């Protein structure tokens, strides 16, 4: 990856709706070169997806909760089971396996406290491998920037 690829990635992370001509103007290249490079970045798996970021509050998910989860046993099959369950849980927008006191950190977006209670009862309390969890309700989203500095 060279400097032009980095400039392309930086521009696309701000807006992936740019035409190749607009992108080329921003990064100082030709539209054809930008198209080839973007397609290569996609095929190489550098660009994971072209998506629209939706404001959770605008679609009725006004409560964001950060949840740390500690598993009872760390057998590979049980960890994989937990990962699968979190991937399938529509309320979980992000899930990270981490080091430290917790095994996982979840970002949960729901309508309200009642919906979070349902999530806890159906996804955490029912999982026999969840030893304990701690939830922290977000009061204010200070920064939301799903970009990587390249």
Class per helix and strand makeup: alpha+beta
Major β-sheet annotation: 4 strands, antiparallel
Instruction: Supply the number of helical segments.
Output: 5
Helix content range of the residues, please? 25-40%
Strand composition percent: 15-25%
With strands numbered from the N-terminus, the spatial order across the biggest sheet is 2-3-1-4
Q: Which parts are unreliable, with pLDDT below 50 for 5 consecutive residues or more?
A: none
* Beta-strand segment tally: 4
Which series of helices and strands comes N to C?
HHHEHEEHE
What's the alpha carbon Rg, rounded to whole Å? 20 Å
Descriptive key words:
150 residues; alpha+beta; four-stranded antiparallel β-sheet; 5 helices; 4 strands
């Amino acid at each position: 990856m060279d400097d032009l690829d980095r400039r392309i990635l930086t521009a696309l992370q701000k807006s992936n709706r740019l035409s190749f001509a607009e992108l080329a103007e921003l990064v100082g290249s030709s539209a054809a070169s930008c198209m080839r490079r973007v397609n290569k970045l996609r095929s190489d798996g550098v660009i994971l997806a072209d998506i629209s970021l939706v404001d959770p509050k605008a679609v009725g998910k006004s409560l964001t909760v950060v949840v740390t989860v500690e598993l009872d046993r760390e057998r590979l099959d049980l960890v994989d089971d937990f990962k699968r369950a979190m991937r399938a849980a529509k309320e979980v927008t992000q899930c990270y396996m981490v080091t430290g006191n917790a095994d996982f950190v979840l970002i949960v977006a729901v309508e309200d406290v009642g919906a979070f209670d349902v999530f806890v009862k159906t996804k955490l309390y029912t999982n026999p491998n969840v030893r304990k969890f701690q939830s922290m309700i977000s009061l204010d989203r200070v920064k939301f920037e799903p970009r990587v500095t390249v």
